[in-house]
Each structure stands twice: as C-alpha cells, then as structure tokens.
Amino acid sequence: ERIGSATSLSSAIINTRLQELVKLFKERTEKVKEKLVDPDVTSDDESPVASPAKPAPAAAPVPPLGGEVEEDKPSGDDHYCEMLCCTFKYRPWLDRLKSYQFPSSIDPLTNLMYVLWLFFVVMAWNWNCWLIPVRWAFPYQTPANIHCWLLVDYLCDLIYLLDILVFQTRLQFVQGGDIITDKKAMKENYLRSQRFKMDVLCLLPLDFFYFKIGVNPLLRFPRCLKYMAFFEFNNRLEAILTKAYIYRVIRTTAYLLYSLHVNSCLYYWASAYEGLGSTTWVYDGEGNSYIRCYYWAVKTLITIGGLPDPKTLFEIVFQLLNYFTGVFAFSVMIGQMRDVVGAATAGQTYYRSCMDSTIKYMNFYKIPRTVQNRVKTWYEYTWHSQGMLDESELLVQLPDKMRLDIAIDVNYNIVSKVALFQGCDRQMIFDMLKRLRSVVYLPNDYVCKKGEIGREMYIIQAGQVQVLGGPDGKSVLVTLKAGSVFGEISLLAAGGANRRTANVIAHGFANLFILEKKDLNEILVHYPESQKLLRKKAKKMLKSNNKPKDEKGGPGDALIIPPKAETPKLFKAALAATGRMGGKGPLGRLRWRLRELKEMQAAQVSMGRMEISPSRCLRSKARASAGGVRRLCCTPLYVFHLFCLFLLQGSSFSPTPPKSPVHQRSPVTSHKVQTRPGEISSESSDRLVTVRVIPTAQEDEEILAAEISEKEDKEKGEK
Prior knowledge:
With about 725 residues, the protein is an alpha+beta fold.
C-alpha cells in the first residue's frame, strides 16, 4: 500500500510539472507569434546594453636605428579635463572653434544662425537710417568726434560686404520642386536676383567724395537701400516667435516714431535755413534742439494744434506739406495698428462671438440656470487651457503627412502604452492617431455610465477620472491619472461584452482623447492581421477580467433566452443500461408490466387513451421512496412519453392535447391511493403500478412518477 501511494504521489507531481511546462511553451509560442506579426515588438526583458567596443591596440612604433625608444608624448586626441587627471593639448572650446567649418549651404527658413546674422545686418541698416538724417540736420557731427562716426560707418559697411560674399551666396533655393544646395548654382541664383542689385547699389563708394567736399553724411544715403534684409528679418523672426503680434505692434510703433524723427530733422533744417529765432515759427535755438524739434513734429503730424502761424512763403509751403504728410502717415499708422491688434485678438473675438451666440440660444429656449453655468464654465476652461475651442480646425489646412507628424509627437507615447495595441502594425497606429478627438469634461461630469453601450476608448491627456462602484454606486474604486487608458475592450467586444461595467466621472477638469469604434473599424479594414490580433487580445483581456468573478461563484449576466434543457444524464444512462442487461432490472420490469397493461387494455370494449402533455413540466428529477417502492421520474415529460411509446411498441396515442391533466387508464377498477394535497395519482387493480402527478413549488412545473412495487420482484423470485 505504501508503494502504491508513493507511486500515485509521484505521478501526480509529474503531471503537475508537465502541465506547467505545457503552459510555459504556449506562452512562449504566443510571444514568438506576436514578434513575427510585428518585428518592432520587443521582449519584456530589457536587452543588455552592449559594452563599448575597445579600439584595436595601435601598432608599436618602429624603434630608431640607435635602438632607443622615444618617450611617450601626448597625442593629438588629448583633451582638457577639469580634474586635471589627463594631459591635454588644447582646451575644448578652442579645439571646437578651430575645427569649426562654415556650412556650405544655409537653409534660410529654418537656420537660426542665419536669423541671428540678419539681426546684425538690420542693426547696421537702422544705424544708417536713423543717424544719417540727424548728422545731416543737427550739428552733432564735429571735427572732434568725426573719427567715431566714421569707425561705426565702416563697421556697418563691413557687415554689408560679409552679407554679400559669405551668406547670400550660400542660401538654398527651390527650383522645380527640388532644394538646390550646389555652390555654383546658389551663387548664380543670387547674382541673377533683385537682391544682389540692391546690395551692390547700397555699397556705392561715394565716400571718396569726402576728399573733395568734406565728410557729408548725405553721401551715405545709399546705405538705406538695404531694406530687403529688414523685411526678410521680420518674416523669419515672426515665424519663430510664439507671440508674433507683440513684435508687430513694436514694429508699427517704430514706424510712427521714425516718421516723427525725420520730420523733426526737416524742421530743424528749415529753421536753420530761415535763421534760428528769426521768426516766431522757426526754432529759437534754446534748450535741447532735438527734443524741441521732435515735440514740434509730434504736434504737427498728429494735428494737435496750438502752433504759431508761418510768416514767410517758405514756412507756409513747408507747413502745408507737413500737414498733408502727417494726415496721410498718421492714418496709415492707425489702420496698420488696427490690423495688428485685430489679428492678435482674432481668437478672442471668435471665442466671444461663440459664447454670445450660445448664451442667446439658451436664453431663447429657457435652459435652466445650472446648465447655462456649466456651459459657460466649459467655454472658459477650454479657451484658457487650449487657446481654442476645437483643435481640429487648425490642422484641417495642413497636409496629411504634417498632421500625422503632429499627432505622433502629441499622442504616440500615450497610445503605444495601451496593451491592446501592442504588437499591431505601426502604420495602423499612425492612422489611428489622426482619428483621436480631444474633449474637455467638467468636474463631476459622467464620462461613461454603467450599463450603456461602449463605443469609445478614452485616453487621459490631463486631469484625473474616478471609477465608481460598490452597492450604492458612489464608492471610488480607483483614480486614473494622465496617461491612463480605459474602455479599450469595448472597441472590439461583441454582444453584451461592450457594456460599461462601472460609472466613470471626471475628478476636476479632465482633458481626454476619444477614439470611436467606427473609426477603428474603418482603419482595420486595411489591416486584417492586426484585426485578428486585436480580437484575440480583446477576448483574452475580457476572459481575464471575468475570471475572478467566476471563481468566486458570482452571478453572471442574465440571459435573455435561456438555453434549452438537455436530456437528463440519468435517463440516458438508464436507456444504455436497459440495452446491456437484456431487459432485466427495474426498467425491464417496467417494460414487461407495460406490455401486460397493453394486453389488458386490448381486452376492454373501449380503450382509454393515455395523454401526456409535454408542457406539464420543464425539468427532470429522479428519486427513490423509502417505503419500499421504486420511483422513476423523467423530464422533460415529453421525452418520457416517447420512451413509453418505444416500450409499448405500437400502442396508439392520441395526438390531440388533453382536456384534463389526469392520466386515465382503461375502465378497470382502480383504487385511489392516499396522496398529498394537490397530488393526482392512479394505480392498477393489482396495485403493482402507480402513476402520480406531483406538483412542485413552481406553478409551471409538475413531476410525473411511475412506481413499481417490490412485491412483484419477490413473487417472481419465488417462482
């Protein structure tokens, strides 16, 4: 016995171990299959980082003829170390500066170095535009400081020259849809452009006339013709600024200040021409000349009034031209400023118009005040958090490839972490990213409710949501934060599996990405392998989610149409046993007794019909009475009826439904047996066979019982 128990124990251990091995092999097979579907999928274990390859040892230097080995010298690769633990030859920044190579071609649209260079060019251009009129009109340029003015002038000329020789000849351009980076082609393109002609014109060497007429700042007026660099710098700077409208406002204000600056210079020149203090209209020469003239220019251009009347013809003509120029320039500045401010507040204006239209609509239909307050809160939070009401409106005008690039940068890190989509085709995930829709939920808003059909998957971009459950449905089961995903199984579940199992509400303001089921189905049409993988994963995830409930014996979902009851196993076993025993046993005796009843019924003048309604009961039960009577109960009752037909072999039964639930026998004298309340029974004259109809606790169920007394068995045994 001990040997047998030890053998059984060892076999049980071996079977358990074999089952574990089979399970491990299945998991490994699934992982390999997923890798074959998508080669980009990596294993769960992190790959070990490869150690850096060691350089091959350098060949030993050939010793000199004298046989002496030279001492070690610091190599050219030595670097500067802050710990001073290594020998070094050059400091790192010096080494990088010496090894730096100027790019052979420059992208004018994206290269920030080019934008920085344009800034220096514009500063040189502004020096000429602002100070040439001042040096010409006001007596600020004197022989004592002439060398400082000339030094800055020629420094600006050097910047102009470097721009022509170094930068403009290296600018890339587009020809026939291709970006040209060839040095010769870029140089020829610049030489044929209008920009080159203006750059050469602004560097006319009129400074040689200084030797004949003296240093006159008007000879440098061509330097102001490099205005194309100024407008190019404006375009490049606005493209990289996050709030470009601020720069536009500053630039428009600079236009106005420059016009006033030129007018003040002209007024001082006119005063000097007429004679300082010669009339009440001209500048009297007191105080700071530039400030006094600038004040007069502001009052004239803005037409404030309060100016002295001109006396001479020259003064009258100058004042008329000044008025006309001031009105025109000031109106242009006002219009441009309005456009700049309007463009800066275009989004805010659109937001206010949408808000006003919505409030008007809600007031017209008398929407409750609480709902109106929530709508206003949604508008305000969405605008302040996103700066827009609908993100998709900005991306509609972009090409499909650019929209994909933006979607990858914004959403790919979140979507790639969803377990349902791991292992799928990468292009399918890219197509799915373009279908994501951003939605903002207010505090305590229901994201989804228990029992509703799930047609979306949610990805939390910002904020938190809470999953509610418990008996009252208000207990917080878990709190999901940014980056979490829920509702992904509903995208592929069928039947009743796509119903929400819990309430999910927003805890505070929450910004979610939504992927609808119809969008995913449209994408999966083009990716059949990913569709199979997703359905398989959804079934596995759904099975794992339902497994704990099944183990605990929790009630499952109620079925709308209950499954049809199968034939009782006891009844099937009884049929098989009857065939093997050759008619012996209780069922055999029941068959023999039914044959005797058939012969007795045939002897009567009028044969009673045995009618059994299949709708009398829906289940099967078998029990044995303790009073020495064997009882056989079979359900469904109609199956028992067919069994009796088989035993009787040809006895006729009425196909019409019965008029009474009582099973009638032939008019042989029958004895009523004492029954329980509501029970109907009838027995044969020899009291060996008793048929009972027993009610159950349910109204639509009854039990048909056929009892055979054991006395017959004893008599038969004695014979």
